[in-house]
Write a structure and sequence with these properties.
The structure is a single chain. By secondary structure, the protein is mainly α. It is built from five helices and no strands. Helix 1 runs parallel beside helix 2. The longest helix has about 40 residues. The relative contact order is 0.09. The model has no long low-confidence stretch (mean pLDDT about 95).
Length: about 110
């Protein structure tokens, strides 16, 4: 007779089912459905941790572009001149300034012009 470690396999399933808590319908209480749903959720989570970084960078670029166009310059021109002036400030900070501190942002634009 073969030995089957029921305690370990039950613990493994319980651990996975814990992750399915709050899912709708059979996804929360049927092992095979639940396992697939949880694993797919982990795939989405992994992918979207990367996608979030891309989305935020795109948002910052749009905000900076809107800010510099108000001062008669394009985003690419501004970033080029920023690098030439050796001003090291990241896009996140620039976007925040463009939105919330227009005077400070204008000072940076005037400095690179």
């Amino acid at each position: 007779m073969r030995t089957v470690n029921h305690a370990a396999s039950r613990a493994r399933r319980k651990k996975m089912m814990k992750h399915a808590k709050g899912y709708f319908g059979r996804r929360k209480n049927v092992w095979t459905v639940s396992k697939n749903a949880v694993e797919k959720g982990w795939q989405y989570a992994y992918r979207d941790r990367k996608a979030r970084k891309r989305a935020f960078r795109a948002l910052w670029i749009q905000r900076i572009n809107a800010g510099v166009r108000a001062h008669g310059m394009s985003y690419s021109q501004f970033m080029g001149k920023l690098a030439a002036a050796e001003i090291e400030i990241n896009r996140k900070a620039l976007a925040d300034l463009a939105m919330n501190e227009p005077k400070a942002f204008k000072a940076i634009v005037d400095k690179v012009k």
